[in-house]
Design a protein that fits this description.
Layout (H helix, E strand, L loop, with lengths): L5 E8 L2 E3 L10 H4 L14 H17 L4 E6 L5 E7 L1 H10 L2 E4 L3 E2 L6 E8 L5 E9 L4 H14 L7 E4 L3 H10 L4 E4 L1 H6 L1 H4 L6 H14 L3 H14 L6 H8 L21 H10 L9 H8 L1
């Protein structure tokens, strides 16, 4: 981004993203994305919302030429997605951008747009914001746009590692935009789903204890393989598709498979969770887009 003011306005058409030097076709989105939405959602913005966004971005650019934002429009020039990062975010990334967490589970406004913060950890072990997005869809195409926009904002410097929820669309986008970045799934999110997945199982209590024990206590891949196999056999879990899927990609979330990579001591997206708790003091699920933009600073 050198010394120019960071502005980017892009239009997306159906499953194809049109952008300078961009990815030509995302037709496969319809097949491989479990979050695919038949009709692309867009924001039905009121006049005050549009004015609030324009005013905030205009003000920030006057205050700091390094303020960056990008707006993704559909074929009717209606807002689909927004990304922005102030100079503090961009400078922090230069120092603390080795490992980033990305989490879209936090909804902040009445338009049902997931809030998508990029979060790192500084030298004091504190969460630090590295850019924010508001997206109207959670399919591969949307995440490709968001990751590409964020990477452009950060002058093309990809992180060494990224931690996300287990999500096929996010995984696809990372493989497209950040092919050399090590990607791991949030262990906390996975273990949190145990209770739901085994709610009616006769051995629920034992399984809820056994899985974390095998995952967290295994000191080597060999020890994990042995412990996992014994657990599956003991509780007759051979036909459990959820566990089978996790096992096939165990190198993305089981700690002993990830020890050789640098993670700044992070294994979950709870850094993002702590950032969400901070935002809870200012916004909630009924906050309008105008209010969100006004409160963001």
């Amino acid at each position: 981004m050198n010394d120019m003011v960071g502005i980017s306005i892009q239009k997306s058409y159906n499953s194809t993203i049109v952008e300078t030097g961009g990815y030509e076709n995302l037709a496969f989105v319809e097949k491989d994305c479990r979050n695919y939405i038949d009709k692309v959602r867009r924001l039905r913005l009121g006049e005050r919302d549009v004015v609030a966004i324009q005013a905030y971005f205009s003000k920030m650019q006057v205050l700091c030429s390094d303020f960056y934002f990008s707006v993704d429009l559909d074929e009717e020039c209606q807002l689909k997605n927004v990304f922005w990062a102030d100079n503090r975010c961009r400078q922090a990334y230069k120092k603390f951008g080795d490992v980033v967490t990305f989490d879209t589970t936090y909804l902040t406004n009445r338009y049902d747009m997931p809030f998508a913060p990029f979060v790192g950890v500084n030298h004091h072990g504190q969460s630090t914001l590295l850019g924010c997005g508001l997206v109207s869809n959670e399919d591969t195409g949307t995440f490709v746009w968001l990751f590409r926009t964020w990477l452009e904002c950060m002058e093309g410097q990809a992180p060494v590692g990224i931690i996300t929820d287990r999500d096929r669309a996010i995984q696809n986008a990372i493989e497209i935009v950040l092919p050399n970045t090590k990607h791991r799934w949030c262990l906390w999110h996975i273990l949190k789903k145990l209770s739901e997945k085994f709610e009616n199982h006769s051995y629920k209590a034992l399984i809820l204890s056994a899985v974390p024990d095998v995952v967290n206590e295994s000191q080597s891949p060999e020890e994990f393989e042995q412990g996992w196999s014994s657990m599956i056999e003991k509780y007759t879990l051979h036909e459990n598709d959820w566990l089978s899927g996790l096992y096939k990609e165990r190198d993305r979330w089981v700690p002993c498979f990830l020890e050789t990579s640098f993670w700044v001591g992070m294994s979950t997206t709870q850094w993002s969770e702590s950032m969400n708790i901070f935002f809870d003091g200012y916004v909630h699920s009924k906050t309008s887009l105008k209010q969100f933009v006004e409160q963001y600073e």
